[in-house]
């Protein structure tokens, strides 16, 4: 049975409409400053194995959670505190990346690869969904 609605189906991430995992990836990458709006890396990305995909997906979820908390804090903060709050969020993101064996440059390389390769995006999406459901 066909729907009469002309609006596309929209998934949600923590109550925020998201059209695809790629949107999440690009938003996270742009916010943490891992490159010029996720520009393609200057050198070809190294091979990305399954373990790195898993670590990337897990780091991505943590970064999105850090960003959501940072957004809430920034909304109610005095303008003089915004810089400090952003520095705290950046430090938390850097720590999360390090905990997952990544750095900003490698995260950016993987983000560019995910943006360019639909099969890789599907793999990352599967890992994200598994982790969101509590399967690791």
From TrEMBL:
Superkingdom in the source lineage: Bacteria
Pfam (any one): DUF4168
Protein name: DUF4168 domain-containing protein
DUF4168 domain boundaries: 50-124
């Amino acid at each position: 049975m066909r729907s009469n609605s002309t609006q596309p189906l929209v998934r949600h991430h923590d109550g925020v409409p998201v059209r695809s995992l790629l949107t999440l990836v690009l938003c996270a990458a742009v916010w943490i400053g891992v490159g010029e709006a996720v520009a393609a890396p200057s050198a070809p990305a190294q091979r990305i194995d399954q373990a790195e995909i898993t670590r990337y997906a897990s780091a991505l979820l943590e970064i999105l959670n850090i960003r959501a908390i940072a957004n809430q804090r920034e909304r109610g903060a005095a303008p003089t505190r915004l810089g400090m709050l952003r520095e705290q969020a950046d430090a938390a993101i850097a720590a999360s990346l390090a905990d997952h064996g990544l750095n900003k440059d490698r995260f950016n390389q993987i983000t560019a690869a995910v943006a360019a390769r639909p099969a890789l995006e599907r793999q990352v999406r599967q890992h994200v969904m598994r982790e969101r459901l509590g399967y690791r």
